[in-house]
Amino acid sequence: MSSTSTAPYDSMTPEQRQAHDTDQKEKERQEQAALPYSWSQELGIVTVTVSLPKGTRGRDVNVVLEKRRLKVQLKSAPEPILDGELFNDISKDDSSWTIRQIIRGDAHLHTPQWWPHVLTHHPKIDTTKIQPDNSKLSDLDGDMRTMVEKMMFDNQQKAMGKPTSDEMKKAEMLQKFKKMHPEMDFSQAKFS
User: How many domains does the chain have?
Assistant: First the structure.
């Protein structure tokens, strides 16, 4: 079976999964390399990096950081380097941009989740494959760490077509309720 099979991921053999993952990673790499910027993310922060002409100063660049929009444009250029709707809301007050000596602009966007892409009209990455540095996870307080671990688990479950932690909890509660009330007929019931 080829690695481009339409078989669900969880029914693939380990070899098929590895080939599938390798193909997907290369496709993502090519799509991301074609973007007019590069980006990375760690827990709570998405960093967008744009190459700028040598000698560019802050006054030469128009950067718009809004709750759901990012725009970067050289004031001397007719078209923006990037402009579009962000994948998710950002904390505008906690987000910033800088121009570094190595002639690149960085925008640091504060966000509570993993992003599959920066701008909604650009190609996505597979967020289920993100493995945060354990030292970063251990730096988080208990509630935040629990939230991030739950988010990672739910992303992996969704990718495999399996129920999320919330869906599993609802199913468990339903089973308990059925056991407590065997006199009730649930055959026609629909739950959402």
Answer: 3
Q: Which domain holds residue 78?
A: 36-122
**pTM for this entry:** 0.61
Residue 188 lies in a domain: no
How confident is the prediction along the chain (192 residues), in pLDDT tens digits per residue?
Answer: 444 445 577 788 889 888 988 998 899 999 999 999 999 887 778 889 988 888 888 899 999 999 999 999 999 999 999 999 999 888 888 888 888 755 556 677 767 677 888 899 999 988 877 766 554 566 666 676 677 777 777 766 776 677 888 888 888 888 888 888 888 877 776 666
The residues near 158 (Cβ < 8 Å, ≥ 6 apart) are 128, 164
How far, in whole angstroms, is CA 138 from its chain's centroid?
Answer: 20
Whether residues 130 and 170 share a domain: the answer is: yes
Residue 86 DSSP class: B
> Taking CA 115 as the corner, what is the angle to CA 109 and CA 118, rounded to the nearest 5 degrees?
60
